[in-house]
């Protein structure tokens, strides 16, 4: 069965772009354009990968990350979370995020092909 | 004190008098004995004659002593005492006793007084001159510091004291480097200028702009002028003048952080452009003709260039806010360089330049931040492409230099005039000659230097106009610094935790 990916991304063009390439690569992908909805979906735990943007309307990616992997423990042990952002954090908050997520990628330097390649290299937690 | 002096002198005079009396007594006794031995005269007459002789000798002796020695000495002593402490022994001078030497003594006394008067006048003028100059210095709206031959503070005007944030008394004699901390932000610094001046110059002058000055009070941006003089007779080795430019320069800083913010925004559309271009190049590969592929590759290269500029701007804003942190670990410099050269080779080929990589079979591993060094290499090779001619060759060479590995990027392009070579590593600096002809943000070399500096390495340039330029940098071998790295294995890329970041190898 195809691996399931949740993409929480408010930029429609970027969301569509990732969707197209990942679908072509054989993944089952769902794109959600805002924070609260994204968190709700992620919490179902049915996704192998969560692609998380940081600058999101209503609820930021950092907040989502805190709720999924923060003080209350890892609520999403079966998903790999990849932070995708264009806003370079200062090193301290990046280091803090590093502890919670499985990867941190700058979107402007990431082509869809590379994303597919990276996801392909990560072994999903469920398999 | 002066009275002691006179008392001592009087004691000496007493001794002279005592000796004189001795001579008088001796002359009387001698006369008495001679008369007794050679003449048969009664003892009374002998005694009277002897007494007469000694009185006569005594009178003459006393007269001469008094007139020629004691009195003049006394007068001169009083003169000196009067000069040294007029209020203590205001004695009126009488030269009545000095009959024969009076004129001489009068002249002597006169001369002493004149000498003292003129000395006094001189010191008064020089005092008032000094006050005059100090008053000017204190009114100057710029800070002035004078450093002595040990580079300790000898003088600071009012404005300078405000910069330092302490009182004159606290800072005079304190070594300059302990008073303020100067950050020359990529230009040759004060210390190296001083060293080279000390070796090669008698006088030297140097101006720095946009120097960051931190004292115990605050941080300011200044323009600094320094004047050096060798073996200065007044022990003023260096005179420093600086003006506070915090207002205008920090405005630049604000502009830069605005630019940084804007750069982040630019990344959104760049993501989509680069992403879809990648998709298109892939999917159109089988259907597009060669011309169309050529066009597409130019769009791809331009989009990549745009992304690099944006990254440079963001990194510069990090450098300026002291937030550029490197994750230094053990890396293979040959493969790092090869990956970069392979990547930028595409761009070079498109612009009809050839990159040649020369490297020994083996080199020791180096302690670097791979992303950072890739950035530097990209900037240097990119410059070599920009400033060379079509069909030109660019040589990238690696070699070991003791505890360091040297990376050299050499082109046979237009070269750099010697007048501007010192400015190359400055922020926003672009050679005026090429400003119109060649694109760029003027940040690449500034950033490269910041990255190499942070590695504890050196970056350099040598060039001859019309013959090409050589840029190079040296980074430490891993073995030479391994024990200094706090956690050598620590890096952004942590494969053991499955941590993934867009690494240099994913940059296109």
Please explain how this structure is put together:
The complex is a heterodimer of chains A (127) and B (508). Chain A is α/β, with parallel strands linked by helices. Chain A has helices at residues 12-24, 35-43, 61-69, 91-100, 112-121, and strands at residues 4-8, 28-32, 49-53, 80-85, 103-106. Chain A is 40% helix and 20% strand. In chain A, helix 4 links the parallel strand 4 and strand 5. In chain A, helix 1 (12-24) crosses helix 5 (112-121) and helix 2 packs parallel to helix 3 (61-69). The longest helix of chain A has 13 residues, at 12-24. Chain A is globular and about 35 Å long. The mean pLDDT of chain A is 85. By secondary structure, chain B is an alpha+beta fold. Chain B is built from 14 helices and 14 strands. Chain B has helices at residues 2-38, 43-84, 102-139, 158-164, 168-171, 176-179, 190-200, 246-284, 290-320, 333-350, 370-386, 418-421, 444-454, 478-481; strands at residues 143-147, 153-156, 181-183, 203-214, 219-229, 238-244, 329-331, 354-358, 366-368, 393-401, 404-411, 458-464, 468-476, 500-501. In chain B, the strands form three sheets. In chain B, strands 2-1-6-5-4-3 form a six-stranded antiparallel β-sheet. A five-stranded mixed β-sheet of chain B has the order 8-10-11-13-12. In chain B, strand 12 and strand 13 form a beta hairpin. In chain B, helix 2 (43-84) packs parallel to helix 3 and helix 11 runs antiparallel to helix 13 (444-454). Chain B starts with a helix and ends in a 7-residue tail after the last strand. Chains A and B meet through helix 1, strand 5 and helix 5 of A and helix 8, helix 9 and strand 14 of B.
Number of E strands of chain A: 5
Oligomer: heterodimer
Number of domains of chain A: 1
Greatest chain-chain contact: A-B, 31 and 28 residues
According to DSSP, the number of beta strands of chain B is: 14
- What is the average of the pLDDT values of chain A? 85
- Widest sheet: strand ordering of chain B: 2-1-6-5-4-3
CATH-assigned fold name of the largest domain in chain B: Heat Shock Protein 90
Q: What number of domains of chain B?
A: 4
């Amino acid at each position: 069965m195809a691996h399931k990916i949740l993409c929480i991304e408010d930029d429609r063009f970027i969301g569509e772009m990732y969707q197209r390439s990942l679908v072509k690569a054989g993944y089952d992908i769902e794109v959600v354009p805002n924070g609260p909805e994204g968190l709700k979906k992620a919490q179902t735990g049915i996704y192998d990968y969560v692609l998380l943007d940081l600058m999101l309307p209503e609820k930021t990616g950092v907040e989502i990350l805190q709720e999924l992997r923060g003080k209350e423990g890892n609520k999403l042990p079966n998903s790999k979370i990849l932070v995708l952002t264009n806003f370079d954090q200062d090193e301290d908050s990046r280091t803090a995020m590093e502890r919670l997520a499985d990867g941190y990628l700058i979107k402007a330097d990431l082509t869809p092909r590379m994303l597919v390649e990276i996801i392909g290299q990560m072994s999903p937690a469920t398999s | 004190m002066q009275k002691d002096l006179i008392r001592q002198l009087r004691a000496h005079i007493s001794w002279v008098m005592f000796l004189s009396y001795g001579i008088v007594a001796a002359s009387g006794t001698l006369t008495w004995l001679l008369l007794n031995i050679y003449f048969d005269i009664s003892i009374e007459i002998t005694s009277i004659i002897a007494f007469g002789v000694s009185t006569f000798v005594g009178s003459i002796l006393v007269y001469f002593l008094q007139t020629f020695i004691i009195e003049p000495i006394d007068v001169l002593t009083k003169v000196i005492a009067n000069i040294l402490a007029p209020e203590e022994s205001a004695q009126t001078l009488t030269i009545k006793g000095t009959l024969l030497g009076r004129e001489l003594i009068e002249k002597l006394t006169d001369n002493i007084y004149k000498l003292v008067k003129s000395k006094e006048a001189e010191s008064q003028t020089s005092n008032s001159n000094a006050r005059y100059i100090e008053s000017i210095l204190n009114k100057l709206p710029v800070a002035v510091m004078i450093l002595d031959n040990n580079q300790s503070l000898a003088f600071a005007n009012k404005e300078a004291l405000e910069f330092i944030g302490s009182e004159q008394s606290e800072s005079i004699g304190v070594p300059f480097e302990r008073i303020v901390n100067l950050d020359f932000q990529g230009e040759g610094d004060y210390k190296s200028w001083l060293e080279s001046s000390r070796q090669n110059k008698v006088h030297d002058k140097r101006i720095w702009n946009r120097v960051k000055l931190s004292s115990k009070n605050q941080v300011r941006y200044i323009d600094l002028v320094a004047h050096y003089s060798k073996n200065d007779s007044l022990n003023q080795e260096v005179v420093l003048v600086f003006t506070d430019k915090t207002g205008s320069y920090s405005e630049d800083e604000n502009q830069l952080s605005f630019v940084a913010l804007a750069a982040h925004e630019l990344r959104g559309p760049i993501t989509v452009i680069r992403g879809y271009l990648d998709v298109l190049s892939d999917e159109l590969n089988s259907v597009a003709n060669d011309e169309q592929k050529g066009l597409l590759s130019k769009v791809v290269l331009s989009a990549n260039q745009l992304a690099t500029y944006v990254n440079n701007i963001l990194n510069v804003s990090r450098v300026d806010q002291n937030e550029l942190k490197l994750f230094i670990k053990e890396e293979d410099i040959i493969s790092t360089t090869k990956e970069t050269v392979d990547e930028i080779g595409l761009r070079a080929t498109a612009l009809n330049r050839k990159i040649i990589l020369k490297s020994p079979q083996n080199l020791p591993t180096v302690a670097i931040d791979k992303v950072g060094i890739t950035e530097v290499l990209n900037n240097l090779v990119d410059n070599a492409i920009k400033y060379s001619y079509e069909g030109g060759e660019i040589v990238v060479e690696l070699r070991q230099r003791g505890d360091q590995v040297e990376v050299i990027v050499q082109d046979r392009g237009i070269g750099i005039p010697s007048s501007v070579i010192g400015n190359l590593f400055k922020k926003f600096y672009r050679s005026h000659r090429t400003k119109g002809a060649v694109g760029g943000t003027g940040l690449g070399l500034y950033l490269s230097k910041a990255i190499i500096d942070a590695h504890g390495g050196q970056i350099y340039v040598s060039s001859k106009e019309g013959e090409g330029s050589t840029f190079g940098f040296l980074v430490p071998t891993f073995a030479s610094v391994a024990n200094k790295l706090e956690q050598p294995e620590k890096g952004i890329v942590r494969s053991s935790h499955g941590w993934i970041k867009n690494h240099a190898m994913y940059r296109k």
